[in-house]
Design brief:
alpha+beta, 10 helices, about 500 residues, five-stranded mixed sheet, about 60% helix
């Protein structure tokens, strides 16, 4: 428990804190009111007692003179301004003289006696006329003089107080205190609101006093802060440039790693596809020769049509085999303008041979506007793989839709091909690795597990991109982007003519 003598100090601290928390204007009002109160008390209690003392002395002196005059003459002169003194003569009863005073006057005629308790009244007995006289000295003059002195002093002090307050509150304080403080607060608000044009105090507003020193110091602090911010922004911009460059290099590194992984994967697939292609070429050659001999010996038109169809399928199989042989190395096939509508149609015809396609509805909106630059056989192989993948997903009953449109992306015009099905969709755990080789849990796992991997390789060889996703309404979608080529009728006709000659 703190000692008792510290309580006044605590009270003073609380009072000082309460006064310190006041705003500037109330604080100054308290101060100059306190100042004028002290000034008034000092003036009043120093001047009024002095005036009272002087008036009392004058009153005593006047009383003494009148006393001597009353003793010598028995009356006062009848001169101007002497009418303030009342002189009355008469009997003791008429003058209402007290018995003790009358007894004293009878004993000492010609002498002057003051009435006890009333020093303003003088009595005298005229020994010759045996009458009494009373002289009354008016005290109202002295009392009024003191009263007027007090009134004048208080009036002067009050007038000075009012004039000083008016001068302080209308001229001095607003100009030299309140305005600089308001300007400083407005500039601070501008700093908080990030209004750069208003945050520096104009030099014309800054005076040479302590408040001006504070304003100049504040301006210097704000300008130094802005310089630091500008330096920090430049540093951050530089760091952002470095970070962007680093991200770009990291992206390039990741792309390089991805390309290397893809090349390694494609190289492995190429080795496998080469061995498979070599194994297929021999039976395909035998099959092709057998079909040609049967065409030479069979005359039935229906049988011949079937044999021609079988011959076309065998030729297609040889092209696929040759494609597998060239898959792991850069293709030397001529890239030409290829119209997608017939490519997609032929691809579905090849897929539709499967008996599971009998209950499937196929739709495509590709038309003559959708032309890309590429290898027609490779593109057929691409769409055969995608359509076969969709056919496996719907399992014999459903709809496969191919949607095609043009889209500008990164200053390049692309052809976007969406192969959609309403099947079971792609499992979420498989989706990130859908294009990896030998993933046995994906949709094309009923085959070799290489269909989508080969499709991805063909798309990349054509400078495009491929992605897989699930449809919100159910099923899967494969999106292929290939660089578009301006439609040229002559290019398409030349390509068709070359295909006719090859057949």
């Amino acid at each position: 428990m703190p000692p008792r003598h510290r309580k006044p100090n605590s009270l003073r601290r609380r009072a000082g804190r309460l006064f310190g928390d006041l705003r500037i204007r109330p604080k100054l009002i308290v101060l100059h009111n306190l100042f004028f109160l002290v000034l008034t008390c000092a003036a009043y209690f120093s001047l009024i007692p002095l005036i009272e003392e002087q008036i009392t002395t004058a009153r005593k002196r006047e009383t003494t003179l009148l006393h001597e005059m009353f003793v010598e003459r028995g009356s006062v002169p009848t001169q101007p301004r002497m009418e303030i003194y009342e002189h009355v003569e008469g009997t003791a009863e008429e003058l209402e003289i007290a018995a003790d005073v009358q007894e004293w006057l009878d004993r000492y005629p010609g002498e002057v006696r003051q009435e006890p308790g009333t020093p303003d009244r003088l009595y005298r007995k005229d020994p010759a006329a045996d009458t009494y006289a009373r002289l009354t000295i008016s005290s109202e003059f002295y009392e009024n003089t003191i009263y007027r002195a007090k009134i004048v002093l208080l009036t002067v002090l009050a007038s000075l107080y009012v004039l000083a307050v008016l001068l302080l509150e209308t001229v001095i304080m607003p100009r030299y205190v309140y305005r600089p403080i308001r300007v400083t607060l407005e500039a601070d608000s501008a700093v908080l609101e990030n209004q750069r044009a208003q945050e520096i105090i104009d030099q014309t507003e800054i005076l040479g006093d302590e408040i001006g020193d504070i304003m100049r110091s504040r301006n210097a602090t704000v300008m130094n802060l802005r310089e630091k911010e500008a330096s920090l922004e430049r540093t951050l911009a530089r760091l952002e440039e470095l970070a962007a460059d680093l991200r770009k290099k990291n992206r390039m590194l990741e792309e390089a790693k991805t390309r290397m992984a893809a090349q390694d994967r494609l190289a492995s697939i190429g080795l496998l596809s080469t061995s498979v292609a070599h194994e297929l070429n021999t039976p395909l050659s035998v099959l092709g020769g057998s079909i040609e001999k049967m065409l030479e010996t069979v005359d039935d038109p229906t049988a011949r049509r079937r044999l021609v169809r079988m011959q076309r399928v065998a030729a297609r199989l040889r092209q696929i085999s040759n494609g597998l042989l060239n898959f792991s190395r850069p293709s030397d096939e001529a890239m030409e303008a290829v119209e997608l509508a017939p490519v997609i149609a032929e691809s579905w015809n090849l897929v539709a041979i499967d008996e599971r396609a009998s209950g499937v509805t196929f739709e495509s909106d590709a038309d003559g506007r959708h032309v890309v630059k590429g290898s027609r056989d490779r593109l057929i192989q691409l769409f055969v793989n995608l359509l076969k993948n969709a056919l496996y997903a719907i399992d014999g009953s459903g709809t496969i839709v191919v949607r095609v449109w043009q889209e500008a992306l990164h200053h390049r015009l692309d052809i976007v091909i969406m192969v959609e099905d309403d099947g079971v969709g792609i499992p979420e755990e498989v989706l990130p690795n859908i294009f990896d080789a030998f993933v046995t849990s994906r949709l094309d796992a009923r085959g070799t597990g290489l269909g989508l991997t080969v499709a991805e390789g063909i798309v990349h060889q054509h400078g495009g991109g491929i992605r897989a996703a699930n449809r919100p309404e159910g099923g899967a979608v494969m999106e292929v982007r290939l660089p578009a080529m301006p439609t040229s009728t002559q290019h398409i006709k030349d390509a068709a003519l070359r295909r006719t000659r090859e057949v």
